[in-house]
Amino acid sequence: MASGAESARREGAGVAGERVFVEPRWPVAVAVGAFIAISIALRVAVPSRESVGPHWAVPAVEMGLLVCLIAADPARIEGRRGWLRQAAIVLVLGLAAVMLVSTALLIRDLIIGGKVTNEAGSLLASGFLIWVGNVIVFSLIYWLFDSGGPLARYHRSRPYPDFAFSQQLNPELAPPDWRATYVDYLILGLTTSTAFSPTDVMPMAAWAKLTMALQSIVSLSLVGLVIARAVNVFS
After folding, report:
1. Confidence grade of residue 2 (pLDDT, cut at 50, 70, 90)
2. Phi-psi group of 6: left, alpha or beta (phi > 0 → left; psi -120 to 50 → alpha; rest → beta)
3. Residues of the chain with pLDDT > 70: what percent?
4. In terms of pLDDT, which residue wins out, 108 or 192?
5. Mean pLDDT lowest among 94-98, 141-145, 207-211
6. CA 73, chain centre distance (Å)
7. How many degrees, rounded to 5, is the angle at CA 132 between CA 201 and CA 194?
8. Quick check: pTM over 0.85?
9. What are the Cα distances from residue 86, in Å, to 17, 82, 145, 205?
10. d(CA 110, CA 210)
């Protein structure tokens, strides 16, 4: 009869044909679901807000992403479902493109003027939605691509990480088997959008540095212009 240590080792290594535990997917599903709810609520509350393409396009992409995350199994994933990861990557990158275009449209309206930017409520609602959307989208990018993705991180397939978390830089502060989960990447996306720079997570790979730089520029431009315009509208 296998000992507890042997059982843990087999679970971590994965035996051929067995399902391998990775990490709960519900935090990702909750984040995407919350963003969908915010999008729909603000669409109803601010119908004049400009959107990219048909009104149903972005919610459809978001729902497709949510279905992929749920179909991947909330707590486990099988090797034969690798196509779900590819589908999730395509949807996340598509959503990222939509969010960047939405940001550019709002910034354009802030500069040249527009119906949404002339109303304080519409302006703040649009700015908040786009800002939250960027936080979630970039956190999903970090989560999907860091060190090859969730499954690769679990198996420690790569010798060096793309992001260095505090628990990795100071192993004595974390359990020996610590691995970053989506919540860690969500906080990374949030701090990058608020501090406009790395905080407790250091980007190591070139793509990670460039992506964080892009997120910081987008957030800084959006927050600065929205606040400046809102002050004028309120006054």
Report:
1. very low
2. alpha
3. 72
4. 192
5. 94-98
6. 19
7. 45
8. no
9. 21, 7, 11, 21
10. 26
What's the CA gap between 181 and 205, in Å, rounded? 18
AA letter at 146: D
Question: In angstroms, what CA-CA distances link 166 with 59, 163, 207?
Answer: 35, 10, 20
Q: Which residue has the tokens 């989560």?
A: 143
| pLDDT interval class at 163 (50, 70, 90) | very high
**CA distance linking residue 161 with residue 148, whole number of Å:** 9
